[in-house]
Amino acid sequence: MKIAIVGAAGRMGRKLCELAPSMGLEVVSKVDVAEGFDAEWCSCTEGVIDFSHHSCLAANIAKAAAAGIPYVIGTTGILPEEQAAVDAAAKAIAVVQSGNYSLGVNILLELVEKSASLLGEDYDIEITEMHHCHKKDAPSGTALMLAKSAAAGRKVSLDEKAIYGRHGDVGERPRGEIAVHALRGGSVVGDHTVMFASELERIELTHKAQDRAAFAAGALKALVWAKGRASGIYTMRHVLGFV
Ligand SMILES: NC(=O)c1ccc[n+]([C@@H]2O[C@H](COP(=O)([O-])OP(=O)(O)OC[C@H]3O[C@@H](n4cnc5c(N)ncnc54)[C@H](O)[C@@H]3O)[C@@H](O)[C@H]2O)c1
Fold first, then answer.
1. Statement: the pTM of the whole predicted model exceeds 0.85
2. 171 by DSSP, 3-state: which?
3. The CATH classification of domain 103-208, taken from the options 3.30.360.10, 3.40.50.720, 3.30.365.10, 3.30.1200.10
4. CA-based angle 159:189:185, to the nearest 5?
5. Above 90 in pLDDT, residue 75?
6. How many other C-beta atoms can be found within 10 angstroms of the C-beta atom of residue 46?
7. DSSP E strand boundaries for 14-134
8. How confident is the model at residue 243, as a pLDDT?
9. What is the three-class DSSP state of 228?
10. Domain 2-101+212-239 has CATH 3.40.50.10420
């Protein structure tokens, strides 16, 4: 399969280019705004993986929809109007979208949903994430996914229960709140902890990514899986056969 990587000069893009051949994929276009990279992917491209910046997603995915080729989105921090462009493209092509392509985090999502459902609101949920100092969006796409899983386990709306950080005279913690906190520093690839804290005990579920290859291998697998699929939006849970 001939593929294009959007954001090929970046941390994830370089890892994707390095791993693609070992999975039988040929990178025919390395698209990036950085000097020496392709401005566009070539017409022979059979699928696209995008780990770049959300601001270029709408135009690129519309182009893939017109060409009828599958698209894997790793880019996070996507704005509502950009997500609308993704949803429109998914009417024509198979799109896989996930805030995290690692096997470990996708298993953690299942564990968090189950734990939240079993423990209920007697256990306060606090989610922390830490990433390298170059990361641009916060909180991480993965932390948002973990918060959604916790809300799904409790059968509540995340929009109504979520808070992002605390500062000032915030008062006592309301029962049922789902809190998300972002830390930045150094070269951390990606750490996430979901804490369930009651009056009597505390459970902490933690994932630590040690190498970006954990995300890159999952994204490459997702593109192979998406080839020939019906149009629509899929997640890594579909790729891994969890749903
Ligand atoms: N879903 C996941 O599993 C996962 C894992 C890691 C990172 N990410 C996300 O992937 C994205 C990239 O992460 P990174 O650490 O590689 O960042 P990075 O800053 O190292 O790389 C981004 C690359 O995109 C390029 N770029 C920016 N605007 C562009 C445009 N208009 N057209 C083409 N290229 C453009 C930049 O030049 C850069 O080379 C971020 O949104 C990050 O949050 C997702």
1. yes
2. coil
3. 3.30.360.10
4. 80
5. yes
6. 17
7. 26-31, 47-50, 71-73, 94-97, 124-131
8. 87
9. coil
10. no
* Polymer length in residues for the chain: 243
Tens of pLDDT, residue by residue over 142-159, are 999 999 999 999 999 999
Q: Which long-range contacts (CB under 8 A, 24 or more apart) does 14-17 make?
A: 15/212, 15/213, 15/215, 15/216, 16/49, 16/51, 16/216, 16/219, 16/220
Q: Tokens standing for 62? A: 């519309």
Pairwise CA distance, residues 25 & 220, whole Å: 8
User: What's at 123, amino acid-wise?
Assistant: Y
Q: Among 6, 37, 52, 55, which residue has the most ligand 1 atoms within 8 Å of its CB, making it the best to mutate? A: 52
**Residues near ligand 1 with C-beta < 6 Å?**
6-7, 9-13, 31-34, 51-53, 56, 74-77, 98-101, 137, 141, 215
Contact 101, 243 (CB under 8 A): no
Residue 227, token pair as written in the block = 């080839």
Mutate to test the pocket of ligand 1, among 51, 55, 86, 236 (most ligand atoms within 8 A of CB): 51
How much distance in Å is there from the Cα of 77 to the middle of ligand 1?
10
Residue with the nearest Cα to atom 31 of ligand 1?
A: 56
Torsion sign across C-alpha atoms 214, 215, 220, 226: positive
AA identity, residue 89:
A
Q: What are the structure tokens assigned to 43, written together?
A: 């017409």
pLDDT in tens, 104-156: 999 999 999 999 999 999 999 999 999 999 999 999 999 999 999 999 999 99
Distance of CA 179 to the CA centre of its chain: 19
For the annotated catalytic residues, the residue numbers are 131, 135
